[in-house]
Amino acid sequence: MALSDVLYAAYGRRLAKGLGPESIPRHVGVMLDGNRRWARARGAGTSEGHQAGADNIANLLGWCEEVGVEVVTLWLLSTDNLNRPESELRPLLGIIERAVDTLADEGRWRLHVVGALTLLPAVTRERLEAAAARTAGVDGMLVNVAVGYGGRREIADAVRSLLLEHADLGTTIEELAEILDVEHIAEHLYTKGQPDPDLVIRTSGEQRLGGFLLWQSAHSEFYFCEAYWPDFRKVDFLRALRAFGERHRRFGS
């Protein structure tokens, strides 16, 4: 083992030892950013970067499981990314399909696919849904796999679902306007019934949400990491938890 690996392992143990209960979020959202830039920096192809990123997902879930996180949301593909050239999009979808299958085969986590699934190719949608169905009985950490996901689209879909529900009940627009509140919309989000994310991590140095969990992250804490996603290590994750535990959460006040 290289000296740097020994030092990082020791540092990681020290970080983990210093984490108290206040450092452990119930729900962590992760923006897995930087795969393409990681590939370019190494003179590799885009698909190699996406594959390297996919290969790091199980590590992250293991770290979350180890400290007691209950829910993880992984943003794997945005609605904007669906507009990428077919020559890039098809290989990326294949990597995502295989990655989600691999996570399901682990049998450790309960997968839930979120996003505008009707925008995905039928073969991708069916494969992701089948993988999630295989984990329905797993009594483990809940993992939201966000594919074809956009925060604005989610809110629009929630409002659409709400309107259709009340149309079926015979509620008029005027009656709905009288009673409508934030909880009505929350009940129709892709993540309905789940706790909102306490901590949102974005890798690659970018410091913006980009549409990730727009509604749910109103009171979230954010942690921005310089490492590209394929290089994200356990010590980076533990640093994020340490930073989270040191913050005084105001919940919008």
From TrEMBL:
Keywords recorded for this protein, A-Z: Magnesium, Metal-binding, Transferase
Residues annotated to bind Mg(2+): D33, E221
Enzyme type, top EC level: transferase
One cellular component term from this protein's GO annotations in UniProt: plasma membrane
Amino acids binding substrate: G34, N35, R36, R37, W38, H50, S78, T79, D80, R84, R202
Stated role: Catalyzes the condensation of isopentenyl diphosphate (IPP) with allylic pyrophosphates generating different type of terpenoids.
Subunit structure: Homodimer.
Family of the protein in this entry: Belongs to the UPP synthase family. Z-FPP synthase subfamily.
Protein name, UniProt field: Isoprenyl transferase
Organism encoding this protein: Knoellia locipacati
Gene label: uppS
